[in-house]
Amino acid sequence: PDLQTKQDKILAKIVGNTTDYFKILDHDDKTVLVGARDVIYNISINGLRENNRIEWSSSAADRELCALKGKRESDCHNYIRVFARLPNDMIMVCGTNSYKPRCRNYEPVVDEVHPNAPITYAVVDDVEAQGKCPYSPVHNSTYAYADGSLYSATVADFSGGDPLIYRDRENLRTEQYDLKQLNQPDFVGAIERNGYVMFFFREIAMEFMNFGKTIYSRVGRVCKNDRGGRNTLSKTWTSFLKARLNCSVPGDYPFYFDEIQAISPVIESGPNALVYAIFTTSVNAIPGSAVCAFNIDDIMEAFEGRFRSQKDSQSQWLPVQENQVPEPRPGQCVPDSRTLSSIAVNFVKNHPLMESSVPSVFGRPLLKKVHLLHRLTSIAVDPQVQALNGDFHDVIYAGTDDGKITKFINIPTASSGATYDDESDIKTVFISELQVLPLGIPVREMVVSSKSNTLLVVSDGTIVTVPLHHCAHIVDCASCLSLQDPNCAWDQQTHECKSLSFSNHKFGTKSFLQSLNSTKKAAKSLCPKSSNRGTVIADGPVLNFGAPIDNNVDPQINTQHNPEEELARKHVYTNVASVNGIPTIGNDINSPGIEIPTAVGGDFLNVFNDENKITLQSVDPHDLMNSVNDPLQSTAIGEEQKLQLAGKSFYWGFGALALALVFIIGMVVGLHVSKRNCKPPSIHSSHRNQFNANPTFGLKHGKDINLLMNTNHYCHPGKPSLDLEKDRSHECKNSTENLEKELPCKTSTLTKVKRTYI
């Protein structure tokens, strides 16, 4: 469907500077930890209230050294990029520290005098963080903390030319400057699963170098119990492998989305563990984005396949024969990697790439989007939302680099009965598209808080929260069902679109209607035909989400002359939303506990009042909403008004036609008369002495006057004759000669004037 931008209610907002480079470090359902410039914030998701903070600035000497190295003043600060929870309630924090990364360990300090005072932290350790934390605040780095060790994927030098995957315990890392292992990577995320730590990144594809330069998306993994090799290989991974991620549109010539941008945490979707990821085309290609999902089992299976290698720089990359693979199989976790032979360790070092790529769930993208103005940049998932029929759906939120958020779900088609293991057709259901940040501001990260019904959105310098769903903005049954949001259902008792909560599923949902896997027409048929009373909120936009809206008038509209219904049809509803910085919408009825502090955005929030509600008789509200194209200005026009408008249009059209006919007839008559009175000059009209010229309409100027008339005694004015003219022409061969010589006739004053003129 052609989704229009929906302006949503901003629950709360924090505005900083674009150079703060906000980054989500950790979160739960109530709080979020945000790393920024020289500080780490502990913020409550409910209202974005600051609970606590830890300040850590670079020293003056480090800032001065950073400036001497040619960096900007805004970069010479300590940007917090890494956070981990240690035993005994201690925490580890790492920052860029003016391009000289450092890490600190903090322990909580309990105030025995004031036990209710906010917890403070004291520094217990301060060490260098080369290989743990990036040098630049904008570098694409990631990390994971598992089993007491920090696994980081970043760079280990000031210039960013030494990428690595590093673990602080045993100081294990990938091979330095080995393009087979890492070739200018951009890391986007890391997860821990099944005894492995997996890293998602994009890099220049070495296997394609003989044909050109391109970027592929990868997933790499290492064993958590890897302890390195023996002797010179003691600081090297013995289990690092990588495989390509395949997010493409299937066909004889598949279309690939090759550049991964973001991933979600592992989502437990029934019996499957999924990772959702954002992919895009290259920056110099047609702007395209896609959302693909990958099953953890498929990733593990790809690492059990054949290896890929290149014999020499001029050869192609081919699969390695099974008889050339040493035992135990390289890349598998062993109790002690230091017992591995040098042959096995060197095989992993020289053959890190797998032959098979990791297929996406259903063998195709869950969402494809081509837009000239924006690309997808971030993703968040509200996992396993229960629908009215008991099915569970992952609700996906995809952010763009233009401040928008697209919300959608995916449903296997009823005919295929697809599962996550089948390459079958699925139905992508668009729910809404929201403008939550100003145009041009990219969405960097998002966090879903299901308990507080809040989506937290983070950009470089802004943090906002918006509702997860918009059930309260739907005013009729058909629109509520066509929304196809598993959070929303139509309550037949109160005639309202409500959000489904756990209590609804627990105590019964017989009075609710919901339609997720149907067309708009089928959803409309589920609504009761009886006349109901509804409420139109007039202070905020009435939203139409979901499937495309059919703007054609339904021929089955009841046209009986009911005075109340006629009055309802004649109403004109105008919805004006406040546009002050960030566009806003009204409150969601499912989140009455959301607090709006004025210190963080309450001055521009819209609050709906009872006086802004318009009560009307329902005349199949879906037909009323079908005439709405603009969510900020909707008009309901009755059948009587349409007939009057059609009559006026007919009379105006008839008058215009008659006026046009009169104008054409006048033009034809005028042209005919002008042709009769103004004959075009003949081919001989240029002759000076043309007798048959029309003296009335002819153009008279000096050179057209016959100056030889009455210039001698042979010419009598009263007796014009062709013979006399011939005689005169015989005597005077041309006018110039006759005027230059003396004529034997009387010369009058007029003749002298004529001579002088000639």
From TrEMBL:
UniProt keywords, alphabetically: Differentiation, Disulfide bond, Glycoprotein, Membrane, Neurogenesis, Transmembrane, Transmembrane helix
UniProt-listed SMART domains: PSI (SM00423), Sema (SM00630)
Xref: InterPro entries: Plexin_repeat, PSI, SEM1A_sema_dom, Semap_dom, Semap_dom_sf, Semaphorin, WD40/YVTN_repeat-like_dom_sf
CC terms in the record's Gene Ontology section: plasma membrane
MF term (GO), any: semaphorin receptor binding
Keyword Acetylation: no
Record's keyword annotation contains Membrane: yes
One GO term (biological process): semaphorin-plexin signaling pathway
Domain Sema, chain residue ranges per copy: 1-468
Gene3D superfamilies given in the database record: ligand-binding face of the semaphorins, domain 2, YVTN repeat-like/Quinoprotein amine dehydrogenase
Superkingdom: Eukaryota
Subcellular location field: Membrane
Chief location: membrane
SUPFAM superfamilies in UniProt: Plexin repeat, Sema domain
Parts of the chain that traverse the membrane: 650-673
Name this protein carries in UniProt: Sema domain protein
